[in-house]
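Standup notes
- DV: blocked on the single-chain target, sequence here:
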Amino acid sequence: MLIASSLVLLMIPALGLFEAGLLRKKNTVSVFMQIFFGLAILSVMWFTFGFSLSFGPDTGVGLVGNMDWIFLKNVPYDSGLHYAPTIPGVLFAKFQMMFATITPLLLTGAIAERMKFSAYVLFIVAWSGLIYYPLVHWVWGGGWLEKMGVVDFAGGIVIHTSAGMGALAAALALGRRLNYGPSIMIPHSIPLAVLGSSLLWLGWFGFNAGSALASGSLAGNTIINTHIASSVSALIWVGLSWMKTGKPSVIAAINGAIAGLAGITPASGYVSVEHAFVIGIAIGIVSYLGVIFFKEKLHIDDALDVSSVHGVAGIVGALAIGVFASSAINPAGPNGLLFGNPHQLLVQAIGVGVAGVMGFFGTYAILKVLDVLIGIRVSPKVEEAGLDIEEHAERAYSDEDEFGKM
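- DV (later): unblocked, structure below
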């Protein structure tokens, strides 16, 4: 679990590399500042009150935990939590801290290149407190969705559905970038993006397999499911992109891999590897079509397609539990439709619906309130010059002549 927690931490700078590489270089510093400042402030929030609200003793109505565990007070240093009886309670809190930090940071891919840093800080703080912490409690912390039977092994509902639908709302609330179109969508460093995606793939093994909370057969099954689904989804994205454009694309490959990782996350600990293969195919097809629908049909400027790569993929994987889950794989989990329990599909759909509604409408409301209070978007002048120099007075690269051209 110590290694798994460290692998999930690795995913946070990896996310910065992935996003920065796919954006224009005049906004590289901005991306990394959002990522690293977010890591710090969200970690402190989790320590002070987030863990208690998410996993603390229920207040009695299944909506939120109480404040008994603020500053991790009374959280046992040995194996005293019923959520994680085989590991120290503080280690479980640390593992979940990594989830609580990376989830809001996924939204940086949707708001890239146009959001004020001050508004961003208030946004991720409010998003965590009003959307993420309640969802965690509802699904993982003994709340009402968990009592209903909703399951989510490593975050397809709690993390990817909520963040993905939040990304869609954020893109709508912020509006399109200046000169929106193919000319501003040219990545400044594909190698940087490939490196970031590779490290994300590595870190995801800790993300998913670590959710087994033990090194054993369940973790082993989870890690092979994670790898196969990602590989299949990458192949699907490359194939569909190749048919569409006539050229095989490495950007399609890395986006497809990330979609596969996100999509298999909720089901990874409940399904067999052959079913993970099938789920990976579905994730690849549906998430790729989601990009075309949102970006090319609706012209929504979700800069890095978070709504599809994470949101749509997470929804597919969460619903797949209702079809493919088997208690033979995970005795603590449910059976799905193929194993005699069609009701689980309905239960999963309710969980997905709640997270999607919370993510979309909650995000939109938070941003609209912030827009009234302080404004959320930089001026056209700042956006044109780039957020790096205008918002942070720093450049990612020293070649000044080239800086202003990208």
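- Follow-up: The chain has a mean pLDDT of 95.
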